[in-house]
Design brief:
- By secondary structure, the protein is α/β, with parallel strands linked by helices.
- The chain has a single domain, classed as Stationary-phase Survival Protein Sure Homolog, Chain: A (3-Layer(aba) Sandwich), CATH 3.40.1210.10.
- Helix content is 28%, strand content 26%.
- It contains 7 helices and 13 strands.
- The chain has a 9-stranded mixed sheet, sandwiched between helices. The protein has a two-stranded antiparallel sheet with strand order 9-12.
- Strand 3 and strand 4 form a beta hairpin.
- Helix 1 crosses helix 4 and helix 2 packs parallel to helix 3.
- It is globular.
- It starts with a strand and ends with a helix.
- It binds manganese (II) ion.
- The site of manganese (II) ion has 6 residues, from strand 5.
Amino acid sequence: MSLPTILLSNDDGIQAAGLRTLARRLSDLGDVVVVAPDRERSATSHAFTLDRPLRCEEVEKGWHAVDGTPADCVYLGLLKICTTKPSLVVSGCNHGFNLGSDVFYSGTVAGAVEAALRDVPAMAVSLEWSRGMRHTPEVFETAANFVHALARATLAEGLPVGTLLNVNVPQRPPPKGYQWTRLGKRVYRDQVDERKDLRGRHYYWIGGPAEGHGDVTGSDLHAVRDGLVSVTPLGLDLTHAGLLEKLPGWTVDGFDAVAHKDLHKERRT
Ligand code: MN
């Protein structure tokens, strides 16, 4: 039996140590194909390059550098570069957590989302990273060992259509276990730093440092705080079911609310 294909990407760029470690560690589970941005594209979320062509260079065998975003890379990887359909897409391992609301900004998570949109099982992987932390090879190994075990489980179990896994690995001390979690609430300092350029015009640096988290039971933030690897199942359906139930009670002056036919039928019976 031929080995499954595993597509790897990231948002820190093809040179990133986290990506290299994962590629090496996962190589016994399948044929690893790397399609990654040619430079760092962190916090690009699901940006998709439509205003110019993309260039792709095979920098070494099986390693493809693209001058685009993580979503571009996974799209190209799945539709063009991989000769057989991947059984798994892994995005990471990101240099820094992607917890709580980070998932909306993260290029790492977007790489996995792009795979999930195309019905390919996927996980995003992120590793704790902060100033003053030493980034030894062992730090990446710990994350890579967990991802290896979880990738094996994912290949065996599969994931439902429209879902993906968001994995966060704390690094100090090395995690003793893992926990299935929900997204918590990460809090950053609101910050807009206004400065003046040489011509007297204003410019802005936006985004402040992380400042803790909200108290959400069972959250990803609690798990990593407790020294555990966090695995959050994410769904692509952002519809708020509860609100969808409540909103038909609204009055929108001058317009009739048309009930959904199926919903109407359900109510009559
Ligand atoms: Mn990154």
